[in-house]
Specification:
Largest sheet: 6 strands, mixed
Distance between the termini: 25 Å
Number of helices: 11
Oligomer: single chain
Shape: globular
Strand order of the largest sheet: 7-6-5-8-10-13
Length: about 525
């Protein structure tokens, strides 16, 4: 990772690697590189978060039972294995804030959280101003103690950052929005709707979605992602060489899988009256300039569209409305009043290329159920691409670089692993990773289980500038006490360090955890 000044365009490395992979026969894994073993699950469980409304879109607040729902997968009825009403997803009773940072999310069980994103990368300057005003108006209409823990993030020209950590303090979020000064959207204004610049913005948005999913895998409840902005321009794949179209579709599918695995539902709010433009992907060189390994819109007929992340994850795309404050409130409300159902598909095929359509039919025909439109059977490589055995060592490195550079150049907390760090000796830090979240190896008959991870540290000055970093691969044998894994990392700090961040990325399941220190 020679350059950790993270820009989304680093995702270009991954697309280039994917194109190379598509044009060559699959490569065998490096014989000197150990291949992680994983446990095989023979029974697939599909979990659905379901919002029930009347035909006018109003939420229904009466008690429903599992008998009121029929799940159809590819038109075939499925047996509901578990059923949770909205009362199972409520915050603990308190008139005081329970959550003041991401570290407090473990206190709320399966209650939902809200992720507010201001998309300044793909919005005109006047639309940014309107979006910020409406965000403030929405927050001012809420109680002083928010019903859902809420985090505020922003997508900018060169970076995706957290403006305020998870909180229930309404006034702190209002102040954060007011203080944030948006950048002039020079990438949008310079790139237009064709060529590398437009596709590069597509890559930046998909990298941001991947980062949100990666960072929040440790939060068990539903995450309602309210994306205020146009997202990336739609891409017309008609006429594109088939291998290139397949790569974009596979990337979009992987991004969607990452969101679904993190239990994220997207509500997309377009602040302009017009729809997003369509990117004309003129040549393979346009594709080589950007994009990453994530996500696919499975429903596009020759077009990749940002808005279809909403139905793919069970949310809604709002367009053509100027009452943005009400639309934000509507998205948040739908995200906190939902049922959770699960089933085991009667079709046992695990073909990852076959999309499974999902529809829920309500016993009461006046009611409407909204959930995700379907899914592709999940593969290990969808959530942890470095386990894709067709990848070369260079491609594996590119995937690791994107994950680690994203975590080291942001203040967003990652909770897929619970990490603590202490100074164990001069210039040496001890990292402990809690048992929950670790992907232990599936041992051979003559060996024990072990954890394998990439551990990294970055250090920053008082303005948040990354001054340096270090990383290495570590393993740790599993003990009898099930007390997690321990790693060490040598770190020599300069004199002007104000903050340190440690990152651990599990080699087997791709989960990541971070911990920040201000005292060394």
């Amino acid at each position: 990772m020679s350059n950790l000044k993270y820009r989304y365009v680093a995702a270009a490395v991954l697309l280039s690697a994917l194109i190379t992979r598509a044009q060559q026969p699959p490569q065998q894994s490096d014989t000197n590189q150990s291949t992680p073993q994983t446990l095989k699950v023979t029974t697939r469980i599909v979990v659905l978060d379901v919002v029930v409304t009347d035909k006018k879109g109003n939420l229904i607040h009466r008690d429903l039972t599992r008998d009121d729902f029929t799940i159809l997968e590819d038109k075939q009825p499925q047996t509901i294995r578990s059923f949770e009403p909205p009362t199972e997803h409520q915050m603990p009773a308190s008139d005081q804030p329970i959550v003041n940072s991401a570290a407090d999310l473990k206190k709320i069980g399966d209650a939902p959280v809200t992720v507010l994103v201001l998309d300044e990368l793909n919005s005109r300057f006047e639309d940014m101003s309107f979006s910020r005003q409406m965000m403030v108006k929405y927050l001012q209409s809420q109680p002083a103690v928010l019903k859902q823990p809420t985090v505020l993030m922003v997508a900018m020209n060169n970076t995706f950052q957290q403006i305020h950590d998870y909180t229930q303090n309404r006034d702190e979020l209002i102040e954060a929005v007011k203080k944030h000064m948006p950048e002039y959207p020079w990438r949008l204004m310079n790139s237009g709707k064709t060529g590398p610049g437009a596709v590069e913005r597509m890559a930046q948005v998909m990298a941001a979605l991947q980062q949100i999913g990666q960072a929040s895998t440790g939060t068990s409840g539903r995450k309602n992602l309210i994306w205020v902005g146009n997202g990336f321009p739609s891409a017309n794949l008609v006429g594109l060489e088939q291998t290139q179209a397949d790569l974009i579709e596979a990337a979009m599918r992987r991004a969607t899988a990452r969101l679904l695995a993190a239990r994220i539902t997207m509500y997309i709010i377009n602040p302009t009256a017009s729809s997003t433009s369509v990117v004309e992907v003129d040549t393979p060189d346009d594709l080589n300039s950007s994009l990453d390994e994530n996500g696919r819109d499975p429903f596009g007929a020759g077009t990749v569209s940002f808005t279809n992340f909403a139905p793919s994850t069970g949310g809604i795309a709002f367009t053509g409305r100027n009452d943005l404050a009400n639309v934000i409130a509507e998205g948040v409300a739908k995200g906190q009043d939902y049922y959770t159902l699960s089933y085991s598909p009667t079709n046992s095929s695990a073909d990852p290329a076959k999309f499974r359509n999902i529809r829920i039919v309500m016993k009461d025909p006046t009611l409407h159920a909204t959930t995700r439109d379907g899914y592709y059977p999940e593969t290990t490589a969808d959530l942890n691409p470095v386990l894709d055995k067709t990848m070369s060592a260079k491609q594996v490195t590119a995937n690791l670089q994107l994950d680690l550079s994203s975590a080291l150049t942001t203040t967003i907390s990652y909770n897929g692993l619970t990490v603590t760090a202490t100074k164990s000796a001069p210039d040496t830090y001890a990292l402990h990773v809690a048992e929950n979240g670790i992907g232990w190896s599936n041992p051979a008959p003559d060996s024990a289980q072990h954890a394998e991870a990439t551990v990294a540290a970055g250090w920053y000055d008082s303005k948040g500038k990354l001054l340096g970093h270090v990383l290495r691969e570590e393993t740790f044998p599993r003990g009898s006490g099930n007390d997690g894994a321990n790693f060490t990392l040598p770190v020599t700090l300069p004199a002007n360090v104000a903050r340190m961040r440690f990152v651990v990325r599990d080699a087997y399941n791709g989960h990541m955890g971070t911990v920040d220190l201000t005292k060394f």
